[in-house]
């Protein structure tokens, strides 16, 4: 599965792009239909040859392609608008301008074959189909919102009245609350569920577990004017977690925010919503269209890799069965995106006798199977994680997932350790191609984390390709102990 909630984590840009692309398709279909019916009957609607021979072939192609190219490069909204009056003011007007331009061009180039009836029919067809498409896209968008697929799940931290105001605003807007839970900062009594209709917590409870339980993707944190957020211990604790954070206050104070972002080297930008100014801190780069492309490429390359390596995988399975019998698959709970747990799959390389699942495998480990040493040496045991990639739990490239016990251990030792969970874990990663593979001690784990954080801050699709190319070399050079 593709993690759609992550693609839509901050805005609807990819859905907006889809809606515009579908408009270009429906415009082509409308003009195509009008071209066929101009001199033929409905039964010839699937005769593409008739379309190629029609007088309006180039007109149809020109209008459709111009609409598609222009929306890709010039018409990119961040949020999808369902209202029809906006649709008529923007989308329909935009189409009419393109249509008018090509109509005038057609008039000068083919005045002898001018058919006013065709232009009228094609225009009516296009507008009717575009309105129908808008209705369908609105229904799809509503379905995605209701089923929490493109909802930005938010934990709100602030005063009771602020939380209440936000819930009312976003319930009215989306029919389902954006705010999934909250921490109230101005009341000693936290029994406000009946009024807010969402779970309410305080800082004494286990924050990380709460965030995971409610599948939180963002934290909105209210700050007071004049408050020294550089010394805000609660905010500093939040920044250690693998979640996007937005600070908000009801007046603009750029210096107040910059004093914090400069200190911690976090990218920051501001936006106004209603009566509040929002400042983004510690945001993940894994959102929107680039993330969608990454997910699609993961699936394509995973299928290619499994087809190429299938003989090696089957031989390894047979060797494990001959030496130590069933099972040949090893599973373990690991830490994934936002710290959520998932089951990882690997070929079993350790003996069945008294296996310690929490102890890392070291060089010359007595628990290793004879063939297990070879399998681990060339990372053949990792091939089964292609299944995790196809499921959507992992990516081909990303920080390696750790055991739950190790995540707990190192998060208490290394500051900001959990921030490495701001994307899907990978089969290979920036740390691994730079020599940090296999078992680690505390110092090596700190260096590995530094490479993972660098990857998160500098991620791009081209970097992923570089890592995949370097992985083959790294497997041959570095031993996976």
> Tell me about the biggest sheet?
7 strands, mixed
Query: Over the alpha carbons, how many angstroms does the gyration radius reach?
Result: 28 Å
* Order of helix and strand elements from N to C terminus: HHHHHHEHEHEHEHEHEEHEEHHEHEHHH
Find the structural class using helix and strand composition. Answer: alpha/beta
Counted beta strands? 11
Lateral strand order in the biggest sheet = 3-2-1-4-5-7-6
Overall structural domain count: 3
Beta-strand share of residues:
5-15%
Number of helices: 18
Describe the structure.
A seven-stranded mixed beta sheet has the order 3-2-1-4-5-7-6, with helices on one face. It has a two-stranded antiparallel ribbon with strand order 8-9. A two-stranded parallel sheet has the order 10-11. It is built from 18 helices and eleven strands. Helix content is 52%, strand content 11%. Strand 1 (154-158), helix 7 (160-174) and strand 2 (179-184) form a beta-alpha-beta unit. The longest helix has 37 residues, at 288-324. It has 481 residues and is α/β, with parallel strands linked by helices. Helix 2 (13-37) runs antiparallel to helix 6 and helix 5 (84-109) runs antiparallel to helix 6. It starts with a helix and ends with a helix. Residues 257-268 have low confidence and may be disordered. The chain is flat. The protein folds into three domains: 4-146, no CATH class; 154-281, Rossmann fold (3-Layer(aba) Sandwich), CATH 3.40.50; 288-477, no CATH class.
Short description:
The protein has helices at 4-7, 13-37, 48-53, 57-73, 84-109, 116-146, 160-174, 193-196, 207-213, 233-238, 254-264, 288-324, 370-377, 386-391, 404-413, 430-433, 442-458, 461-477; strands spanning 154-158, 179-184, 200-201, 218-222, 244-249, 269-273, 276-281, 329-335, 341-347, 395-397, 426-428.
């Amino acid at each position: 599965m593709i993690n759609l909630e992550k693609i839509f984590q901050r805005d609807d840009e990819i859905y907006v792009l889809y809606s515009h692309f579908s408009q270009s398709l429906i415009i082509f279909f409308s003009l195509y239909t009008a071209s066929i019916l101009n001199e033929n009957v409905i039964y010839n609607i699937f005769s593409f040859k008739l379309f190629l021979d029609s007088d309006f072939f180039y007109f149809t192609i020109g209008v459709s392609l111009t609409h598609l190219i222009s929306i890709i490069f010039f018409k990119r909204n961040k949020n999808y608008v369902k209202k029809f009056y906006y649709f008529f003011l923007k989308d329909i007007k935009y189409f009419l301008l393109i249509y008018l331009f090509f109509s005038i061009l057609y008039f000068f180039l083919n005045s002898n074959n001018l058919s006013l009836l065709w232009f009228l029919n094609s225009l009516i067809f296009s507008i009717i189909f575009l309105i129908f498409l808008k209705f369908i896209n609105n229904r799809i968008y509503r379905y995605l919102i209701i089923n929490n697929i493109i909802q930005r799940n938010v934990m709100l931290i602030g005063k009771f009245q602020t939380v209440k105001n936000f819930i009312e605003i976003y319930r009215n807007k989306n029919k389902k609350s954006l705010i999934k839970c909250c921490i109230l900062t101005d009341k000693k009594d936290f029994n406000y569920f009946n009024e807010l209709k969402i779970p309410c917590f305080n800082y004494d409870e286990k924050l990380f577990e709460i965030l995971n339980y409610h599948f939180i993707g963002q934290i909105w944190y209210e700050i007071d004017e004049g408050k020294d957020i550089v010394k805000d211990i609660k905010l500093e604790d939040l920044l250690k977690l693998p979640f996007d954070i937005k600070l908000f206050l009801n007046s603009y104070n750029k210096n107040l925010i910059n004093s914090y972002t400069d200190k911690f080297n976090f990218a920051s930008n501001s936006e106004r919503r209603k009566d509040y100014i929002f400042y983004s801190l510690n945001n993940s780069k894994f959102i929107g269209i680039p993330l969608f492309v990454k997910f699609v490429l993961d699936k394509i390359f995973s299928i290619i890799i499994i087809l190429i390596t299938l003989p090696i995988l089957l031989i390894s399975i047979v060797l494990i069965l001959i030496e130590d019998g069933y099972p040949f698959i090893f599973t373990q709970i690991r830490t994934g995106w936002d710290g959520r747990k998932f089951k990882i799959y690997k070929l079993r390389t350790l003996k069945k006798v008294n296996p310690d699942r929490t102890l890392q495998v070291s060089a010359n480990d007595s628990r290793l199977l004879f063939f297990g040493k070879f399998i681990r040496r060339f990372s053949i045991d990792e091939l089964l994680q292609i299944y995790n990639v196809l499921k959507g739990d992992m990516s081909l490239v990303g920080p390696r997932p750790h055991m739950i016990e190790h995540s707990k251990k190192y998060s208490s030792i290394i500051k900001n350790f959990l921030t490495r969970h701001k994307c899907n874990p990978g089969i290979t990663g920036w740390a691994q191609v730079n020599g940090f593979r296999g078992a680690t001690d505390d110092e090596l784990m700190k260096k590995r984390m530094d490479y993972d954080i660098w990857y998160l801050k500098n991620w791009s699709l081209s970097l992923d390709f570089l890592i995949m190319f370097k992985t083959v070399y790294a497997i041959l050079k570095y031993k996976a102990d």
